[in-house]
Amino acid sequence: LDYLASMQKLDYASHGYGGFFCNSLLDTHWRADLTEEQGLELLERCFKEVQTRFMISMPNFTIKVVDKNGVRTVERKS
């Protein structure tokens, strides 16, 4: 569900200005068989890209995993 309330089935998505920087990484590196660890590594790549290219400092990110067990917050390794 995006900010215009349009709902589409997607394998991956990013929203806002940071999405312009992350979509190319997701397009290149996302696979249907990613493990959670690999997905978190891909997120770290996206965070690094946003921190490098975005005009405003974005030092903090929160990762929430949604799966069959519910929703949980995951601590960043870096």
Automatic annotation (TrEMBL):
InterPro entries: Ntn_hydrolases_N, Proteasome_sua/b. One of its GO terms (biological process) is proteolysis involved in protein catabolic process. One of its GO terms (cellular component) is proteasome core complex. This is Proteasome subunit beta type-4.
